[in-house]
Amino acid sequence: MSGGRRMAAVVTGGSRGIGRAVVERLVHDGATVVFSYTAGERAAKELCESLGGRATAVRADAADLGQVEELFAAADEMFAAADAGPLRALVNNAGVIAHAPIDEVTPQVYDEVMAVNARGAYFTLRAAARRMADGGRIVNISTTGTAWPSLGESVYAASKAALEQVTRVASRELGPRRITVNCVSPGATDTDLLRAGAPPEVLQTVAHMTALGRLGTPADIAAVVALLLSPDAGWLTGQNLRADGGLV
Fold first, then answer.
1. What is the pLDDT of residues 173-213, one digit of tens each?
2. C-beta neighbour count of 64 within 10 angstroms
3. Residue 129 dihedral angles phi and psi, to the nearest 5°
4. Residue-range domains of the chain with CATH
5. Residue 244, exposed/middle/buried by CB under 10 A (0-12, 13-18, 19+)?
């Protein structure tokens, strides 16, 4: 964001990892942010306190469409109270991961992942677009796993691939309103979730496979998101930026 324009932004899944870094970056750049979380209420409150009241946390599960609508209704009220103007940005970050071979994926696991990553993200985008100011910005968070999937990621990769296609269609449908819609696809990013699921030697191997010789950080991804939200990115839409240090 630049040029002194105020920005009212909603970030889903903003209490930890990449989402948290996005919230921090947007507030640093002058935005008023409402972010959602499902678990981790303490982390969400700590983040709000650390940002001096420029961010507000709302518990909302992306899989529950009623809660998605409640999130945006709450955001409308909070932006009005802060004199932040109408919604201008959505970062559609909430997501869940499930690892299992195709032969072991149950209908329940399939439905749980799709409910958040595909269905939830879809209707979050729709709710945002309906109230977003013309000239706004939507960024969907996908994964490089759609281009270079790992074993056991069939459902996760499929859910994010769906989101990438929705991004392309939405960019055309919302283009007449000058709303841009893009994806950011992070590669291996150094979060607590990644370290909990992969041993150090695997992380080291992946780091060496990138062109830049390291894992990404949440701040790296937040910087790419901030670029797409800025006025300078007004001619970028329908794109999928792979923020992976040259891994793919």
1. 999 999 999 999 999 999 887 877 678 898 899 999 999 99
2. 15
3. -60, -35
4. 8-189+218-238 (3.40.50.720)
5. buried
